Amino acid sequence: MARTVNCQYLKKEADGLAFQLYPGELGKRIFDNISQEAWSLWQAKQTMLINEKKLNMMNVDDRKFLEEQMVNFLFEGKEVEIEGYVPQKDDE
């Protein structure tokens, strides 16, 4: 049976992550409060950020920026802004 959490991003009960995917206290906070669905949404945004901003995950500043964006997205409800990206409309 899947573990459920009260997802802070989705604002509802949902299936939780199978295991802690991120290290440290932030990782525990994500594991305890973020659903698999919300994490998948973040992963898509993360990929776009890395690609569009040409982030280097070996660079400490780039990792710090990405972590800030993750916290803003998952816990503070702030949308990730990606310069030049225009979401596809449903009727296209």
Please give a structural write-up.
- It is a single chain.
- With 92 residues, the protein is mainly α.
- It has one domain: Fe(II) trafficking protein YggX (YggX-like).
- It is 47% helix and 9% strand.
- It is built from 3 helices and 2 strands; from the N terminus they run E-E-H-H-H.
- Strands 1-2 form a two-stranded antiparallel sheet.
- It starts with a strand and ends in a 17-residue tail after the last helix.
Q: What is the residue-mean pLDDT, rounded to a whole number?
A: 91
Write down how many β-strands occur, each being a DSSP E stretch of 2 or more residues.
Answer: 2
Q: Which shape, going by the Cα principal axes?
A: globular
* Oligomer kind: single chain
Notable traits:
single chain, 92 residues, mainly alpha, YggX-like, two-stranded antiparallel ribbon
Brief summary:
The chain is mainly α.
